[in-house]
Amino acid sequence: MEIPSRITSILASTFEGCSGFTAFEVPEQITSIGAAAFENCVNFTSISIPDSVKELGGYVFNGCYNLERVSLSGSLTSIGLYTFARCTNLTKMIIPEGVTSLGGWAFFNCGNLSAIDLPDKLESIDIRAFWNCFSLTGFKIPPNVSSIGEHVFENCPGLERIYFFGDAPQLGSQAFNQVSPSAKIYYFEGKTGFTEPNWGGLPTQSIQQPSAATFWLIDQNLHHESELVNDPLNTGLPLLAYYALDLPLGQYRSPEPIVISDQAAYVFFGGREDVTYFVEISKDLVNWTSDGVVMTDPDVEGYRTASLNLIDGRCFVRFRFVQNS
What we know:
This protein has two helices and 24 strands. By secondary structure, the protein is mostly beta strands. Strand 17 (198-199) and strand 18 form a beta hairpin.
């Protein structure tokens, strides 16, 4: 469907109940999308909303239960009531950096939602925002959140780890009702307002002297004390391989060579201070050496270059990582 260039707003309920299209790309001239504009578009699977959109009404995607992929405008400052309620096929969500409030019931009944990235500027999470989100196992509360409404995580039976990055917010009643029996609240050393052994009806634990690995593990929706030698995906790759190269869990890719004449160069992230990096070569996959490999120190963004000479012919290359004690 093509929207004429003279149209700058999608009004409330414009496409409500339309089942005839599966994807929608909002054109750049649109600045606002009204309430329930795409409500109950049951065959919707993806939508892209450009940065021109500054306002998104409530109920916009309520009941779009086949919606899987959403790209939100970076200009948004709030997510309204029931915005993604009953989007049962939604598994991951990134909320834009400018959003400061998350409306009530925003992700109600998103049963397959397992990961959501909330911005540091977020200040409030309203009533029942994640009610019945059965697939949540871990959750990060950004540092500026000062208010969490009633029943926000009610009936999230898989939710085991709630990490608070700031001081304790004002907490509504039964915010953690019917979460996992093993659920625990974690907060960082120096943050105030939390009580031990319990706060908000759940056991609490202070995280002392967190490392870069601690934060990376939390970002990957893993327990912060997980060992980097573990292979939770059973792929033969330990967590250390992802951590060392700063890659999302499950998205490992080996550095690709740049070959010019008889020289090969690999550019890769190698900025972890608690990891020693090795780039090694072999002719037979048995004997490995770093002789002949020149590796730079990390640049300001943590990237290194490993160079090797191919004048003696091509060879096998491997990357090896050792976690420093």
